[in-house]
Amino acid sequence: MPSVPTAGARCMTERPPRRSKTCRSRNSRKKVVCSVTGLTLHQKALLTRKWNRMESATVYELGRRMFESIFTENPHYLAYLDLKGEPNWRNHINFKIHVQRFVTAMSEAMRRLRDPSTSYDVLRDFGASYAVYPKRVSAVYFERLANALNQTATQLQEGDHQGIEMPVSASFSSFSTPAKTAIHSRGSLTGVDSIREHGDCLGQLLSLIWDSKAEHHGPNDVCPITAEAWTVLSAFLANQIKYGYEMERVIRTELSKLGLDGSGGMKRGALSLQRPTQFA
């Protein structure tokens, strides 16, 4: 008579139901995003590393190219620096000082990228400098500033990025060469054919990896990771500069109502000369 399996034996023999595979991507883990800049920790580290490799002359070149592209495409923006109708505005002292102020503010912001809230003042002070000139700055100008900064910085640093990757690709393609040379010099050892085969496979694997990367990122293309990081950072910088300008405008307007100028002194003509009151 066949024995009837007990409840304990049945639990031991029956397999647990298979769990369904998740449809979520393994890379969909929540990234920690800075609440101030919108950058991830990886993007901050990437930009900081690239910025630290830039020389001071390259940093100034970044600012110069950025403002040149803005004013070349939109000459009427020159009025914001009191350079409207100036034919040689590139060599004008107003333009050079403005570029230097921006470079100084941006360098300080990059130095404080780990704690970006401490860079508010320096960025807003630069934005406030636009209020010195009478022409009111359009909000579109600050959007153009963000786009120009993103494009110029990406182009400048992408050249440096490609220069670093070129030697790496060369080392990948020649990875199996030393292995072959060493194998031929020790031909009496056992397992030579196996080692040679593994060396060839590794070299082919590395070359395939590099070729697949090259299909999506050509020698003249912009690194998408770098471009995305600069897009986010440029928006943060431009917004703080814009905020500084708008706040300075409000302050100057209120001071004007009180009969004061921007430096805290009395406006000329604010006090009218009147006869002293005569008492009986």
UniProtKB/TrEMBL annotation:
InterPro entries reported in the protein's UniProt record: Globin, Globin-like_sf, Globin/Proto, Mb-like_M
All copies of domain Globin, residue ranges: 38-246
Location of the region described as Disordered in the Swiss-Prot/TrEMBL record: 1-27
Ranges annotated as biased composition (Basic residues): 18-27
GO MF annotation: an example: heme binding
Taxonomic superkingdom: Eukaryota
UniProt name for this protein: GLOBIN domain-containing protein
Naturally occurring in which organism (per UniProt): Haemonchus placei
